[in-house]
């Protein structure tokens, strides 16, 4: 096929061709500015909600129909940066969470060494622990701990128990153990959108104890987007920033196929969530992830997968914009 317009038309069909993330070339991270990766891991959630490992395949399935240019930033990220789909983390011991977390770390150490900024799709939220074990104090972070922009309904700083149904470096613990290991600075990190599901009245206390800057969903509704964005910019400042986006921060009407739905209080709509993400525009973003998609529970139109891809596109575009300015 030689006609560029016909090629473009075909490339926009999600059901045609070899499915890579956003139709990027499937090569290694060497020489790339951004490395897109799948982390098909479910055993860190510790529950029967195990289909999160199908997230990367679901997102590859629909990502071809995502935007090719960012109309707000006025850039074409695919032309502004060298971007590749570096594939999936291999998990030969997929039911052994602790082995999987270490394999994630080794995979991302290679990406960090190559100087490519990873943007990943999971997988349950335990994958963030494995990734940041590689990035914290690493090459991309300039030898510093990372600062989180963490959008989530849950704190993932559950220190009252030492495991989650057998998983130690679990989806419920990474916010604590990464701080204990010195790979993240909670005092220069934001946790935004927390709304459930509390089993005790002191459910936020471990996050406060670690020094995280917390904005609950209730507080967000009271303060408004602009005020929270201003705080986020001030807290993150000139730090190496890692964005972790749990799809359950969104209202279930926006993203129904997530592993831990929180229907009792309205979550973010997509414009609010994107507005918070863009608080990091121009900051030193060293990577990001989108987690907790349950494709087996998605609507027939794949709305949750499409939404996850849209969130990834925002991260990719902000990093590509930084590359273009460098």
What does this structure look like?
The protein has 326 residues and is α/β, with parallel strands linked by helices. 34% of the residues lie in helices and 14% in strands. It has helices spanning 4-11, 55-62, 77-80, 97-114, 127-135, 174-180, 205-210, 217-223, 225-236, 270-277, 303-325, and strands at residues 34-39, 83-88, 117-122, 147-151, 190-194, 213-216, 240-246, 284-291. Strands 2-1-3-8-7-4-5-6 form an 8-stranded parallel β-sheet, sandwiched between helices. Helix 6 (174-180) links the parallel strand 4 and strand 5. The chain is globular and about 65 Å long. The model has no long low-confidence stretch (mean pLDDT 93).
Taking the sheet with the most strands, its summary is: 8 strands, parallel
Strand content: 5-15%
Class inferred from helices and paired strands: alpha/beta
Helical content class: 25-40%
Instruction: Report strand order across the widest sheet.
Output: 2-1-3-8-7-4-5-6
Radius of gyration: 18 Å
Number of β-strand runs: 8
Unreliable parts: none
> How far do the termini sit from each other?
35 Å
Quick recap of the structure?
By secondary structure, the protein is of the alpha/beta class. It has eleven helices and eight strands.
List the helices and strands and how they pair.
Blueprint: H1 4-11, E1 34-39, H2 55-62, H3 77-80, E2 83-88, H4 97-114, E3 117-122, H5 127-135, E4 147-151, H6 174-180, E5 190-194, H7 205-210, E6 213-216, H8 217-223, H9 225-236, E7 240-246, H10 270-277, E8 284-291, H11 303-325
Parallel strand pairs: 1-2, 1-3, 3-8, 4-5, 4-7, 5-6, 7-8
Helix pairs in contact: 2-11, 4-5, 5-6
